[in-house]
Structure formats: C-alpha cells, structure tokens
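User: Need the bound-state model for magnesium ion:
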Amino acid sequence: MISLIDIQKHFEDQEVLHHISATFEEGKTNLIIGRSGSGKTVLLRCIIGLLTPDNGQVLYDGRDIHRLSKHDGTLLRQEMGMLFQGAALFDSMNVLENVMFPLDMFSSKTHRERLARARFCLDRVGLTDAENKMPSELSGGMQKRVAIARAIALEPRYLFCDEPNSGLDPISSRIIDRLISDITHEYGITTIVNTHDMASVRGIGEQVLFIHDGYAEWTGSNATLYTSENPHLREFLESDQ
Ligand SMILES: Nc1ncnc2c1ncn2[C@@H]1O[C@H](COP(=O)(O)OP(=O)(O)O)[C@@H](O)[C@H]1O
Ligand SMILES: [Mg+2]
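Assistant: Bound-state model below.
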C-alpha cells in the first residue's frame, strides 16, 4: 500500500497540489484521474521521488520515500517499475536487450537466469517472437508492451504508469489496460495509473482518485463514479459523452 499524507507542492507562486491525502491499495489498479493540467503528473512525480513535495509524506508500506537513507532509497527504487508517456525504449537496443537492461543493471542472478526472466516477461506481454526486433520496427502498442515487460522484469512491488495509452489507438489502449490490470492482480502489485481516458476508467478503475485543480475531490471505485454529486467530477464525466 502507498499512502499520501497531506502532500503540497508549489512552483514559484503557484500551488499545484493542495493538501492531498490518499491511499493506493496492493493488488489493485489505482487510477488518478482529472482533466489536463489538474496535477496528475506532478503528483505522480512526487510519489516516485522525482519531485520533492513542500510538505507531507509518501509512505511505501510505511517507508517515507522522501526521508530514506541513500541505501534504503536505492532498495526501494528497485521495487518500483515505471511506464511513462511514450515507450521510452532504447532505440539502439533490440527488444530483448531492452528488457534485459534493468536485470543487467540491478539483478544479481546469473546471465542464464536473467535471460530466462526477460523471455518470461516478453512472453507475458505476448511478444515472444519479437525479441530480435528493433523498437523502430514495432507499432506503438507493441513498443508499449515491451516497456511493460521491462517494467516488470525486476518483479516490482509498485508499478507507475503516466498516461499509458497516450498516442495509441483504442484497440491497443484496451490491450495495454488489460495487461496492466492483469499483471497487477497476478503479482499483487500496488499500481498507480494516471489517465484522463474514460474508457480506461470504466475498464480498469478499481480505485479512483479524482483531482481537480490540485485538490483531491473524490475517491471511490468506477462502479460508484457515476453516482457522485461532485460537480467537477460530473463535468469531467459528462465531457466524455
Ligand atoms: N516544472 C514545472 N514548473 C512550473 N509549473 C509546472 C511544472 N510542472 C507542472 N506545472 C504546472 O502544474 C500544473 C499541473 O500539471 P500536471 O501535473 O502536468 O497536470 P496533468 O498531468 O494533470 O495534465 C499545471 O498548471 C502545470 O502548468
Ligand atoms: Mg500529465
């Protein structure tokens, strides 16, 4: 579980996150939703430690990422998998080498074991036959699947995805959503996904945090989303129709 306690963040004289508290549960796809500019990316960057909040705590099963020793911070980072906008693969490496990269960097396993793990992850995302291809030879959806394989290579406890479907067609988007959700359940990962894609919300939004102008305004499951009386959330939902 990841808990946020009273997170605040400002840039110069603009406060972009206002006293955000929330919990993200283990083995669930936890979504952060809200329109563009609402603060989803800044919040995710505070959660993963790329930005330091001005106030508040980000607890990973009790460990505050912003107050760990260097050693404990390094250990925690190895428990985190990330999937960002764009696939961000290494263009000069083939598919297998891309998935091997985190294993070669951080795993103490033998080469043979690392290779087996990379192939297992590629198989899990349905790309067994693509291991020798270069990223430029793949569609956007396939590149995203390679990025997922790479993100789960080190068996993360925590998975973070910022707008994983941006730039993808609806069919590829649903495949990526399904993979993220299935992997989360299979391995009991605490997953946080930023999205403004309502199809994703309806499809995989087990736990939803709605942010509006940097305020956490509503939380619940996608099953209760449409019963909310929060005017900003209703406006957000209606804009999708
Ligand atoms: N590095 C930055 N410096 C100044 N303002 C920023 C910075 N990053 C984001 N912002 C501002 O913070 C707000 C939230 O942005 P962001 O988190 O990217 O929104 P979202 O991901 O929901 O579209 C926006 O008003 C944006 O302009
Ligand atoms: Mg964003």
